[in-house]
Amino acid sequence: MFSCIFREGNIYKNLCGGQWTESSAGERIKIYSPVDDSLIGEIQAQTRADVDFAIQNAKEAQKEWAKIPTSERADIIHKAARIMEKYEEEIADVLVKEIAKAKSSAISEVKRTVDFMHFTAETAKRMTGETIYGDAFPGFDKTKISLVERVPLGVILCISPFNYPVNLSISKIAPALAGGNSVVFKPPTQGSISAMYLGQIFCEAGLPGGVLNIVTGKGSELGDYLITHPGIDMINFTGSTEVGQHIAKEAGMIPLLLELGGKDAAIVLEDCDLDETAQNIVKGAFNYSGQRCTAVKRVLVMESIADELASKIVAEVAKLTVGRPEDDAQITPLINDKAADFVQELIDDAIEKGAKLLIGNKREKRYIWPTVFDYVTEDMRIAWEEPFGPVLPIMRVKTIEEAIDISNKSEYGLQGCVFTKNIDKAFAIAQKLEVGTVQINNKTERGPDHFPFLGVKASGLGTQGIRYSIEAMTRSKAIVINLDKDFQ
Ligand code: NAP
Ligand code: G3H
To answer: Which of 255, 155, 253 is nearest to 476 (CA)?
Structure first.
């Protein structure tokens, strides 16, 4: 059994300055399960003074942490990964209760996190600087040499969303630590119990006190104080476009890495394998009930094959199970009532404006049955807005140009995908889509985690992915040697 130093009964404490701390105001937030409203536990509602304490500890600890050899920092990350592996089942059970993620997906999230940590540790050891001689530039010779290395930025504020509270936290924390930074980590409130296992795990792995500090409390109350704090040297955020844009306005002149919302389109051409395409689209749209930034959020299909594709999609959707995450149902309750109300609004708007309902539009509290609309048009909200729920709109297009145009009209630019057997057409489309990544003959998705992952337009700023994340959380530092020309 996991030795839960961070928990007394069902009250959770935070790792801060190498100690397990409570809110200085003595206040806590109760975390209820979206599955059955049962109380899972209580987390600390921290204050501004607690934030100051966390950042001060992070600032002091970072100086020593940066001096530790990269191989030793990597060893600690490897050790933390092994500890996490041992407790995979326990963390997955918390994910099931806290964010209603199906048990098999919760296990996958933990396994992926373990792999991410090992890969990060190995990548950090293989990152090198460069030596540049002056003679490539007119008027200079080889006596001028720039030695360029990467140095940490300092204290990184890592903020993660509810849908991957473990994996999208480690995707910030591990590369930040590997690069010699210290971390102030603000987990999502709904998801914080799962995320706080990371504190326990790093503590057991021997991470020096103050290098990782956790702050819990509602983003709406504590967020602005954190993001504008002068002790923060960089913010690495994943979450909604609304909060991301707010951070970009408020944070001032510090580096930002923002991974935000999406409205990923699947463009389907006449010559694709329709069975595989339908299966891919349904997985992409409905995994974790559509609560993924990279979910397929609209289908743009050529008119001539639209009937056939739609009926294959419906046949796949009809197989999806709706139920409790512990029973490994594919469609589980949405994260809260507000999220389910929002999805229902988009469904109602589409019906009112004449979309053809193919399947779904059934709701019981936070359960929304997987819903597919055909004949969705540009005046409908579901054509543009991110539902973050199990609803898929199909839009029929006459030409490839029309598909590209509708795809690019979106405010978002996370990913897109193209289904066709014609690689020339696929490439031509991929080059025109205004997104971070285009998948050819596969659903949109983030992994594997050493690939670059980024959004453009309202979908983000900067690039994630193991090496890219380490680079984003470090900077170049050049030391220039000027040799005596007489010795040349
Ligand atoms: P969210 O409401 O934006 O919350 C994300 C995080 O920001 C939470 O930890 C939240 O804390 C915190 N927060 C809220 N207000 C803040 C403020 N003023 N300052 C600082 N932090 C603040 O997003 P979510 O509902 O958890 O996640 C769903 C959204 O994330 C979707 O739009 C999805 O597309 C996007 N997402 C994007 C990616 C990507 O990689 N592109 C990945 C996953 C999710 P509280 O929980 O305490 O409110
Ligand atoms: O929710 C956003 C995640 O970054 C998506 O990751 O494509 O592996 O589910 P995923």
So the answer is: 255
